[in-house]
Amino acid sequence: VQLVESGGGLVQAGESLRLSCAASGSIRSMNDMGWYRQAPGKERELVSIVRSSGSIDYSDSVKGRFTCSRDNAKNTVYLQMNSLKPEDTAVYYCYAFLNPAAEWVFRKFWGQGTQVTVSS
Length: 120
Description:
- The chain has strands at residues 2-6, 9-12, 17-24, 27-38, 45-50, 56-58, 66-71, 76-81, 90-100, 107-110, 114-119.
- The protein is mainly β.
- Strand 5 and strand 6 (56-58) form a beta hairpin.
- The model has no long low-confidence stretch (mean pLDDT 96).
């Protein structure tokens, strides 16, 4: 199972970016999906989680600006980021809590990370 991210880049403050993360491989069942980020010198922090039930949570720092969604048919999670600020600069990592077809347990899989840089 692999998670492949796309969509990062360099933007100016106030602009938007959309990140995508697609899970591929043999998957028996998918549970939560979401996004973390890690800025230089800081710990990785949860940005958003979208559960299999459809409920979504956001960190206070992105609430009202970021929208997380998922396409279950494509095993893909998205992060629409609007009104970006310099403090949003970080490497963004997607994750999926899933049950690989060859196993009988759920595990957390991570994307490779994509850099988002917001200039002031």
